[in-house]
């Protein structure tokens, strides 16, 4: 039976715990999972039923899907029309084409695959690849550019748009900063080591600063050892082939990042995909794998590896880690957790999804993460048991062939880790983690009240706002820039064709004033572009005034 | 008459139309072609409806009333 001291130390006093106190008799039977945890961990941690896990993926009304297809249909028709004009020669083609003599050869440029790029992406291309000319902090400066020929070429006007609110950078804890007083250690390291390493990890690129960093990362995560790499994408794509090979099975989530998919494909193992965050699908695949074994020979699989991410950046959903750990223990599989977006951003002290769910870090076999997002640096790490990391030190492609991490970058990560853990003597780190949680709750709650459709978990700092129609994607990004807010919009093929979205990444460095400005602009823009599709609207506002105010610019 | 408010409302409606049919991304001459084609099609539909639907409904009603009315008369003749 949990004592009051245990309840208080948990920090998350869920209603379930309070109910336990009212049942004073010993006849109250607690679920097996919780009592097991109490025995081994000594404190009441988040069991499967204790943490309120709120995720929502609302569906828009049917007319929205119909109109989205109508919009795509119109653009496709005009795409065919323009391609016809280009083929006839009535219009100049700006893209690469074969020479006249080569027209009968095997085609070099796949016309149909580039059809979408040529005919839709080019028309709204000015919303991506915008050149930034300052630090990507909570506010940044953009180079103003215009196009005279409908986005085929751009030219800079020479002006700079200053203090654009940054809602797109992965700057979750606000450590992308250039305050000289914070960066003194990084400056000293640059003076001492320079910037380039000029070697791979196994040859001459193993600096003492790397060893210090790896020890601190292992301590931060609560595991035995860790290894760091110079590039986050390469951490996944170069280490998964070292861990699994032919004769192994990879069970990968539907919406995994390209780096995980590339690493899985490079490894040569059999890959089976389970539906996003759907544990029935995963369990079915696991059972099939164990019962039937390898495809033709029916021998048992050498290894079964489950690939999941902590936070999925396109959906904002959080992985159901307790259930997956339970499944993995039942079926004796290995778990590879990619915490690129969740390390530093979730959890009470920023230690990622294992802390968020209250699990033991040693339950996850391979913990991977990147330093690009919450740490304001570059690179990735893999952490776990000492045998695993020692194996990777010798067998990983990254350690043998890739240049190791640059010293100032490593020092920046060290400084940030010490800040988050509180080892530098201040409470700045933990304040930032709390500020991020507060910002996330406030932002998501206000957006839901306004009536937008938001995907994902309540606690995830990635907020996808659904736009659906291709016309609105371009209009939304341009209108937001006119109001001095920079957002990232995503469409097909990164998302399903009917679900284009704008993705907001919140930061601890955003002040309440900036968030309010963004929210008010979103409110006006939502009325002007009619983006408020949610059927669960809580307040009905007067729309006529707002819609006209946005048109007057 | 709030002319200015009405004009703004109409321009907002036109903006919505551009966004929903994705003509917002098209170049101006393409938008003109699309608007012309759509306007022509809608006009023809309205014209066809205006000219032919009353005639068709009248003929249909006559057909069905003739069918049931004729049956009623024959049963009456049979009874008497």
From TrEMBL, chain B:
It comes from the Eukaryota. It is found in: Endoplasmic reticulum membrane. The chain crosses the membrane at residues 32-53. It is a multi-pass membrane protein. Keywords: Endoplasmic reticulum, Lipid metabolism, Membrane, Sphingolipid metabolism, Transmembrane, Transmembrane helix. InterPro entries: Ser_palmitoyltrfase_ssu-like. Component of the serine palmitoyltransferase multisubunit enzyme (SPT) that catalyzes the initial and rate-limiting step in sphingolipid biosynthesis by condensing L-serine and activated acyl-CoA (most commonly palmitoyl-CoA) to form long-chain bases. The SPT complex is composed of SPTLC1, SPTLC2 or SPTLC3 and SPTSSA or SPTSSB. Within this complex, the heterodimer consisting of SPTLC1 and SPTLC2/SPTLC3 forms the catalytic core. Within the SPT complex, SPTSSB stimulates the catalytic activity and plays a role in substrate specificity. Belongs to the SPTSS family. SPTSSB subfamily. This is Serine palmitoyltransferase small subunit B. It comes from Polyodon spathula (North American paddlefish).
């Amino acid at each position: 039976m949990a004592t009051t001291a245990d309840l208080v130390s948990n920090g998350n006093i869920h209603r379930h715990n309070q109910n336990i106190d009212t049942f004073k008799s010993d006849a109250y039977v607690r679920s097996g999972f919780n009592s097991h945890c109490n025995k081994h961990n000594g404190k009441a941690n988040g069991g499967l039923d204790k943490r309120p896990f709120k995720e929502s993926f609302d569906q828009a009304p049917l007319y929205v899907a119909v109109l989205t297809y109508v919009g795509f249909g119109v653009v496709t028709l005009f795409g065919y029309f323009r391609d016809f004009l280009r083929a006839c020669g009535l219009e100049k083609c700006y893209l690469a084409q074969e020479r006249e003599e080569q027209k009968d050869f095997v085609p070099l440029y796949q016309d149909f695959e580039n059809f979408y790029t040529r005919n839709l992406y080019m028309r709204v291309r000015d919303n991506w690849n915008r050149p930034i000319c300052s630090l990507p902090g909570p506010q940044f400066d953009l180079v103003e550019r215009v196009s005279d020929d409908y986005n085929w070429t751009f030219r800079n006007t020479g002006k700079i748009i200053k203090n654009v609110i940054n809602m797109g950078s992965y700057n979750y804890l606000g450590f992308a900063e250039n305050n000289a007083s914070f960066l003194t250690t990084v400056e000293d390291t640059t003076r001492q080591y320079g910037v380039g390493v000029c070697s791979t990890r196994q040859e001459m690129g193993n600096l003492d600063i790397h060893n210090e960093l790896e020890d601190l990362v292992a301590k931060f995560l609560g595991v035995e050892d860790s290894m760091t790499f110079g590039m986050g994408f390469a951490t996944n794509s170069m280490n998964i082939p070292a861990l699994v090979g032919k004769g192994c099975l990879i069970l990968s989530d539907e919406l995994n990042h390209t780096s995980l998919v590339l690493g899985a494909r490079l490894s040569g193992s059999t890959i089976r995909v389970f539906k996003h965050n759907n544990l029935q699908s995963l369990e079915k695949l696991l059972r099939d794998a164990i019962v039937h074994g390898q495809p033709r020979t029916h021998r048992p699989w050498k290894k079964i590896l489950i690939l999941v991410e902590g936070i999925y950046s396109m959906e904002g959903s959080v992985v159901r880690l307790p259930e997956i750990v339970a499944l993995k223990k039942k079926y004796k599989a290995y778990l590879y957790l990619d915490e690129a977006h969740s390390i530093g951003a979730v959890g009470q002290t920023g230690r990622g999804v294992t802390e968020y769910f209250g699990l033991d870090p040693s339950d996850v076999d391979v913990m991977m993460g990147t330093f690009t997002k919450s740490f304001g640096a570059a690179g990735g790490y893999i952490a776990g048991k000492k045998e695993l990391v020692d194996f990777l030190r010798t067998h990983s492609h990254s350690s043998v062939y890739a240049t190791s991490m640059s010293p100032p970058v490593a020092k920046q990560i060290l400084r940030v880790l010490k800040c988050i853990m509180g080892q530098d003597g201040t409470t700045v780190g933990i304040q930032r983690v709390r500020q991020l949680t507060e910002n996330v709750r406030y932002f998501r709650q206000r957006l839901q009240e306004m009536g937008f459709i938001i995907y994902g978990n309540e606690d995830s700092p990635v907020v996808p706002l659904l736009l659906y129609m291709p016309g609105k994607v371009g209009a939304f990004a341009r209108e937001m820039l006119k109001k001095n807010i920079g957002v990232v919009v995503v469409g097909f093929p990164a998302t399903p064709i009917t679900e284009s979205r704008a993705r907001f990444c919140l930061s601890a460095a955003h002040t309440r004033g900036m968030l309010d400005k963004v929210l008010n602009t979103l409110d006006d823009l939502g009325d002007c572009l009619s983006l408020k599709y949610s059927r669960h609207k809580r307040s009905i506002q007067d729309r006529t005034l707002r819609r006209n105010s946005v048109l007057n610019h | 008459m709030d002319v200015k408010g009405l004009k703004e409302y109409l321009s907002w409606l036109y903006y919505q139309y551009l966004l929903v049919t994705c003509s917002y991304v098209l170049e101006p001459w393409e938008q003109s072609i699309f608007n012309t084609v759509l306007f022509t099609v809608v006009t023809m539909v309205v014209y066809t409806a205006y000219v032919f639907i009353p005639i068709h409904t009248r003929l249909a009603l006559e057909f069905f009333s003739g069918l049931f009315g004729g049956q009623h008369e024959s049963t009456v003749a049979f009874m008497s």
